[in-house]
């Protein structure tokens, strides 16, 4: 598990390193003509200065350092600034900033077996530095591969639309926020083992594959035409029924079944026709 460390400030150590370096220069210059002891002291001060300098580290905002001591995890430093740690520690830089991942467009089959093209964009960041550093190999590659697997699984779990599955509760095209929520949960489950936090995930591209796009477009157009015609007929039937009831209730004209049938036929032609009806004057009667 991740452990957060609070190391000591590195400003005092920096001053000590500068003093040791100046002392090393002074002893070296003094010892060239006088004594070997000064040369030894100069080398000692210089080595100590280098040793302490190795323990200094600068951490930028939204960055961290994962520390190890001869293969043993010591902790993670997440504070910003100049710090001093054990010079024998090894450190690994790790960014804590949010990153965008624009997935490539994948060609997969939806739940009904239709080939579709789908791509997602996601925002993620490192939440657990221990898991990101030690539980997976190159966590950025792990994020890329697992996000692709999650998108494929999502596409295969739902139909593209409800043309073939009228009872589908959720479709990829009309799912909206619910589909995005399912995608975020899928990504969270897959990437939590690497300490990755998913902040947002959205479908950025969704379409039928090129080989069936034309056929599916014609099918959608036909479905839309049928739906529109159904609405028109339902409205026309209601208007005809209302007209007959009004004529009967207000005793405007008495119609037998044959005249009613003719009137219904004429009204349906007028109301359901694509073009304006052409009136025809009948100088006789319905029976002549």
Automatic annotation (TrEMBL):
Membrane topology of the entry: Single-pass membrane protein
Compartments where found: Membrane
Pfam families to which the protein is assigned, alphabetical: Band_7 (PF01145)
Keyword Membrane in annotation: yes
Band domain span: 54-220
Bilayer-crossing regions: 12-29, 35-59
Key words of the record: Membrane, Transmembrane, Transmembrane helix
The keyword Transmembrane helix belongs to this UniProt entry's keyword annotation: yes
GO cellular component, one term: membrane
Protein name as it appears in the record: Band 7 protein
């Amino acid at each position: 598990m991740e452990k957060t460390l609070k190391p000591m400030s590195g400003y005092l150590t920096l001053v000590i390193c500068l003093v040791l370096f100046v002392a090393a220069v002074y002893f070296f210059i003094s010892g060239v003509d006088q004594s070997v002891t000064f040369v030894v002291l100069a080398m000692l001060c210089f080595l100590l200065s280098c040793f302490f300098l190795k323990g200094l580290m600068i951490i930028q905002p939204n960055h961290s350092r994962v520390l190890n001591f001869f293969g043993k995890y010591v902790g993670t430093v997440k504070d910003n600034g100049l710090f001093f740690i054990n010079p024998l520690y090894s450190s690994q830089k790790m960014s804590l900033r949010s990153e965008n991942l624009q997935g490539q467009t994948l060609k997969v089959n939806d739940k009904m077996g239709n080939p579709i093209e789908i791509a997602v964009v996601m925002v993620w960041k490192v939440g657990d530095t221990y898991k990101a550093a030690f539980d997976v190999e190159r966590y950025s590659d792990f994020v890329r591969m697992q996000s692709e697997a999650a998108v494929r699984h999502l596409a295969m779990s739902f139909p593209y639309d409800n043309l073939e599955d009228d009872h589908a509760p959720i479709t990829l095209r009309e799912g909206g926020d619910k589909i995005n929520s399912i995608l975020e949960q899928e990504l969270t489950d897959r990437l939590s083992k690497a300490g990755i936090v998913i902040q947002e995930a959205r479908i950025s591209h969704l379409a039928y594959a090129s080989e069936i796009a034309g056929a599916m477009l014609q099918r959608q157009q036909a479905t839309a035409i049928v739906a529109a015609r159904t609405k028109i007929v339902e409205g026309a039937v209601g208007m005809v029924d209302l007209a007959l009831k009004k004529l009967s209730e207000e005793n405007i004209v008495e119609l037998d079944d044959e005249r009613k049938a003719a009137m219904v036929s004429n009204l349906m032609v007028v109301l359901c026709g694509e073009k304006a009806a052409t009136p025809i004057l009948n100088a006789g009667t319905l029976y002549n």
